[in-house]
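Thread: "does anyone have the structure for this chain?"

Original post by V.I.:
We have the sequence but no experimental structure in hand. Need at least a predicted one for the grant figures.
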Amino acid sequence: MKKLNKFIRTFVTKRGWSIVVFEANNPFDFKQMKEFNKPTISKIDITDCKAKGIADPFLIKKDNIYYLFFEIEMIGKNGRGVLALAKSKDGKNFIYDKIILKEDYHLSYPKIYEINGKFYMIPESGENSTIDIYEAQNFPYDWKKIKTILKGNFFADPTLINHNNLWYLFVSTNKHNELNIYYSNDFFGEYKAHKNNPIYKNNLAISRPAGMIFEYENNLFRTAQDCSDGYGKRLNFLKINKLNENEFNEELIYTITPSCGIKWNSTHIHHYSFINDNGKYLITMDGAGFMYRLNKYLRKKD
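Reply from O.Q.:
Generated one for you, tokens below.
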């Protein structure tokens, strides 16, 4: 056992948070994800800052270009997050572009919404105790803050869905273990608290959003981080059975766990999103795990 542990320490090292992008036949098709040994894009692809890891990916396709928005966790005393962009012409090979948004506080979770031909971003800015809307002045660049829709709490991973002509905002508070829902008849607000808030309290398994709420085959689904055994340990899928201003009900239907072996997501997985690309699904996820030290020395793609 000692020799085995020595071998592992010599030839295997931890891999920070990284991102994969893969094609699927439906939102629950994870066959290609399981075949990845290394990520699509990782911290070594970042060229304009020192990165500890990258996470929280979201995809947008515009004019036959695939845009991948994500968080960079920078190396430094604060480990502050900034938001960045990579591009692809085929949806498979992504080239890092640059940081596209940073503030004097931590940013993550750059969820993009297209409303009436314009692009808006609602990132996580819990460190600032706000939920803010940014508008792209020149997509995919030049993001300008135009409105604060909620303030006064540590809001984590705000996620919106338009359902039955109302906008519903799902957001975690108290870091990981409390879920609240707000609603509005307008994307830009005013947002009112759901009658049953907090929806969950002291629930680390399904409170924190994990990328998207989506409709598939006339059903509504939600993703949630499972932090019950530690941050980002599993990813849960829930089917929403009822959602209106006064009622909410959902059930757990599927859980994704980290992969076995020396892989990009051997220890953590906590985010999922996709776009429907002409009938195919382009899914992006993040994770953390292990890599062979030889990759570092040879400077192969991390």
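V.I.: this helps a lot. Residues 86 and 96 are 4 Å apart (CA to CA).
O.Q.: and The helical segments are 2-11, 31-35, 293-298.
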